[in-house]
Amino acid sequence: MKKIAVFTSGGDSPGMNACIRAAVRSAIYHKVEIYGIRRGYEGMINGDIFPMDTQSVANIIQRGGTVLKTARSKDFMTPEGRAKAAKNLKKHGIEGLVCIGGNGSYTGAMTLFEEHGIRCVGAPGTIDNDLYGTDYTIGFDTAVNTAMDAIDRIRDTADSHNRTFFVEVMGRDAGFIALEVGLGGGAEAVFIPEQANRKNWIEELFSKKRRRKSFSIIVVAEGEEEGGAMELAAKVKEKYPEIDPRVTILGHIQRGGQPTAADRLLATRIGAASVEALLEGKTNVACGIVNNEVSFTPFEEAIYKRKDINPQLLKLMDVLNV
Ligand code: F6P
Q1: Residue 197 in this model has a pLDDT that exceeds 80
Q2: What is 3-139+259-304's CATH topology?
Q3: How far is the CA of 13 from the centre of ligand 1 (A)?
Q4: Nearest CA to ligand 1 atom 13
């Protein structure tokens, strides 16, 4: 393999730049030409493909977002779109790809290989941490720290007013962010999609008998089944009108900012290992770090297998809120 390309796709996440940098420098180290593709699959279709060198990735390791920009491409979901993308890649002689993204991005790469034989290794870039085959995804640690910092601030005002706060964090279908933020931020409870059908939760948390704390922080994952933080707060107010809860939705703040050291290191290891894997002939696999070792998981598994929430962490939430 003489020419490869790197791109970011789907929601951005802090650490993507560190991963791009590692992929570019590792390719150059192994004497392979490396291209960048802007705006993910959109750029592939539109031919927004350019050569990169060591200088193109200087001074980006500490920056959030992605210098290659990102997109969620509808056109790439069509065979015509993929044919256009493959034609553009072949025009440049590109034989392999490093795709930094989540589930949807891996699915696109798998289809591109099936239809046009372009090889791809995936790097898990999403704050949600919901990808099977890696202990952590790139951006998760930063998002957790950002949300935890916000909760520390909310605590000050919650304490001053003796108030209950529902804080909604990201995680479209997964509660990883909510659970770690809940534990690290000392929350009284977490609501996550993995723990559905919680009966009597209002009474359990807010009955007079339970109300010993002067204030409470409750962390809610956006994908939580009862409808999110607004909905939960409304239900509490309806049942106990004397409680006047407040809601904070942290939203996209969690996706930005300087990546933590843990995210930079994870992204750097995965970026370099993804290039090496391509050069060894691997394709249709996602790179990850499992038990501190680089590891590869077939795209099929990374996409369709569900990564479980750590039950020990869930149990700890209960233990700490006796
Ligand atoms: O998958 C990452 C993520 O940040 C989710 O947590 C969130 O639900 C979604 O992306 C938001 O997507 P968008 O930026 O398109 O609104």
Answers
A1: no
A2: Rossmann fold (3.40.50)
A3: 10
A4: 11
- Enter the tokens of residue 107: 């699915």
- SS3 category, 211: coil
pTM more than 0.85:
yes
The string of pLDDT tens digits covering residues 86-118 is: 999 999 999 999 999 999 999 999 999 999 999
**Of these residues, 53, 75, 128, 159, which one is catalytic?**
128
How many CA atoms lie within 13 Å of 96's alpha carbon, on the beta-carbon side?
24
Query: With contact defined as beta carbons under 8 Å apart, do 251 and 99 qualify?
Result: no
pLDDT of residue 213: 77
Q: Where does residue 251 rank: exposed (0-12), middle (13-18), buried (19+ CB within 10 A)?
A: exposed
288 lines ligand 1 (CB under 6 A): no
Q: What is the mean pLDDT of residues 123-130?
A: 97
Examine domains 3-139+259-304 and 142-255 and report if their fold is the same: yes
CATH number of 142-255: 3.40.50.460
Domain boundaries defined on the chain: 3-139+259-304, 142-255
Examine the residue annotation and report whether 128 is marked as an active-site residue of this protein: yes
Query: 27 CB under 6 A from ligand 1?
Result: no
